[in-house]
Design a protein that fits this description.
two-stranded antiparallel sheet; 137 residues; 26% strand; alpha/beta; single chain
Length: 137
Amino acid sequence: MPYSQRQSGNHGLKIFVVEDSAAVRERLIEMIRDLEDMEVVGEAGTCEAALAGIMATRPDVAILDVHLPDGSGIKVLAAVKQLLVNLRGIVLTNYTSAQHRTAAADAGAEYFLDKSADFERIPEILGRLALNGSEES
């Protein structure tokens, strides 16, 4: 599945959403759309599409699911962080083991969030990142 690039006139924080569930992905995008100075520049449901999309759109923030049909969002983050060193990573997942948390941090994620408990924290975290906050979760 190729990534989808979104067009907008907004010039705020650029965000790329990587999530294999279309329903969850759309919910995230709608949540972000409601925030001032935030722009979803693309979305993807697979690793391959995420890699292409993130490199093409060069977002400020990537929100990534761990489990994707063709691999891991954590590996996507590790790969793109080598070229886009200022990319801020948020891992949002149902796989919240210590092993996944450590792997996400090692890949460059600034936040590791549990979908079932932390989903509603996304607007607050994006606001903090927009202000160049560096507090980790």
